[in-house]
Write a structure and sequence with these properties.
about 500 residues, alpha+beta, 3 domains, 5-stranded antiparallel β-sheet, 16 helices, elongated
Length: about 500
């Protein structure tokens, strides 16, 4: 037994030496000795200067430690005017606490017991308007990279005790804080357990953004379709939480994840709820037609010119013949050339500085398009079609779904070249089969189209007035399905009627 105690003592001493020897190599590692003026007690403060707020140390920590009576380590908790002060004798905590912005206090060189004092340096970006989900009407606040600040923005909009925040540490190297938010009295427990379990089971070394979490917990990581919706708007998160969904916040990311979600939500803008229901429904239908046009326009051009000349109206035949009389390439090569050109211009515009990127996109498109037509490499008809298809793809409110649409146009083009209209139908059958099998946190991704839910259609491809939406989405299986009393709502005019 004596040997066991000696081994444990040696192990503790070894742990103490290891963490200190490792951290001493860093320039920001600081260890300073002081003496209390009243009791002549020797103090030692250990911290990483880049992680702590030195102003708090100078104004709140040192004056109380040096000028007030301090006889033992237990007195530190009483004299310090800080909320997060922990007395511990666990050496294994030292490294973790120092790396999280704590100051370690030891007295009289006694390393068996020490105090951890939270004085983290908080660098928070000021609130700014949403850049990706900008809206003319509605709030102008967007999430920032601070987990605490983002939770504050949500709690400010949902000041209820039922709003639960659960926090996890993910990433063996990054130790990233990940929080899930849900309303306990509304959200289905099975959905919460699914998210909780998947986050706990993440095995990855460094999590730097919410996009990592999407790829690690989604139902099908091989699908090009995003299965969790991300947003930068706190008002949108407040809205989805009241529906019974779950929000996932990652420290260091200005985008919050939403789940479970459905395909139609990726084509709905949150600004739709700030408009009259007729206008909102009209804009949603326009977006759906724009996406279909973006998918079909170029493949239909290739299929018709390659296999189905008889479908071309007689009045249009002359125009097509004139536009293609000097083009030496078949329609498929002509279409791929222009589609790749559009993608190159998009990438160049996105990667360059803002002012230069806008110039490249506008000037490059005009110059290259005009030059390619004059050189006889492409027809002017296809140039117009490709430009309109690219413009239509920009109507998608969610950036990740816009990228999916950009990708899927190329395989549909190849199917159109191989089998014409039959190839396009076959490509859509493959895509539809994939969507029917796809789920978001175990819930059907294609709902309310399949399985058909007539009630959920009230807020999908169209948006009916608010007084018609008295029940929460059926596919979420919420604990409380009723949102408000439908009979009382009928007695008053809806705010958007």
């Amino acid at each position: 037994m004596k040997k066991w105690f000696e081994r444990m003592k040696n192990k503790k001493n070894s742990d103490q030496m290891n963490w200190e020897k490792t951290l001493e190599r860093s320039k920001d590692f600081t260890k300073i000795d002081y003496k209390n003026k009243l009791t002549n007690t020797n103090l030692c403060l250990t911290f990483l200067s880049t992680l702590v707020d030195e102003q708090v140390i100078q104004q709140s920590l040192l004056p109380n430690l040096l000028d007030k009576e301090l006889n033992s380590i237990n007195d530190a908790k009483e004299i310090l005017p800080l909320t997060d002060v922990e007395i511990s004798n666990d050496i294994t905590k030292i490294e973790q606490k120092l790396l999280n912005g704590y100051v370690m206090l030891t007295i009289n060189n006694d390393e068996k017991k020490f105090v951890f004092i939270a004085v983290q340096k908080k660098l928070v970006r000021s609130l700014s308007p949403p850049e990706i989900e900008f809206s003319v009407i509605g709030p102008k606040e967007a999430f920032v990279e601070s987990l605490g600040q983002n939770i504050n923005l949500i709690r400010k909009r949902l000041p209820i005790k039922e709003l639960v925040v659960e926090e996890f540490i993910v990433g063996s190297l990054s130790n990233t804080r990940v929080a899930i938010l849900y309303i306990e009295s509304i959200t289905n427990d099975a959905n919460v357990n699914t998210v909780r379990q998947r986050i706990k089971e993440i095995e990855f070394d460094s999590i730097t953004d919410s996009s990592y979490i999407v790829q690690l917990i989604c139902d099908n990581s091989n699908s090009p379709f995003p299965q969790l919706l991300d947003t930068e708007r706190p008002d949108r998160i407040a809205g989805i939480l009241s529906e019974g969904k779950i929000a996932i916040i990652v420290d260091g990311s200005p985008h919050v994840l939403i789940g479970p979600t459905t395909l139609v939500e990726f084509f709905n803008s949150f600004e739709d709820y700030f408009l009259n229901w007729i206008l909102a429904s009209f804009f949603r239908i326009v977006r759906v037609f724009a996406v279909l046009f973006s998918f079909l326009a170029t493949p239909l051009y290739v299929a018709v010119l390659t296999y189905h000349y008889e479908l071309i109206p007689s009045d249009l035949v002359g125009t097509l013949i004139t536009s293609r009389r000097v083009v030496p390439f078949p329609p498929i090569l002509e279409a791929i050339f222009l589609e790749l050109t559009i993608e190159l211009l998009r990438e160049a515009g996105a990667r360059l500085p803002t002012k230069v990127g806008q110039t490249i996109g506008i000037v490059g498109g005009i110059v290259i398009g005009t030059a390619s037509v004059e050189a006889g490499l492409t027809s002017n008809v296809l140039l117009i079609i490709v430009a309109l298809a690219a413009l239509a793809s920009f109507t998608t409110p969610v950036y990740k779904m816009g990228n999916t649409i950009r990708l899927l146009r190329f395989p549909i083009l190849l199917f159109a070249e191989l089998w014409g209209l039959l190839g396009i139908v076959f490509a859509f059958c493959i895509m539809l089969t994939h969507l029917l099998r796809l789920t978001s946190l175990g819930r059907p991704f294609l709902e309310p189209i399949f399985p058909p839910r007539l009630h959920d259609l009230k807020d999908s491809l169209i948006r009916l007035p608010f007084n018609k939406q008295s029940l929460r989405p059926i596919f979420l299986r919420t604990n409380k399905s009723k949102r408000f009393n439908k009979e009382k709502a009928k007695l008053k005019k809806d705010i958007d009627e």
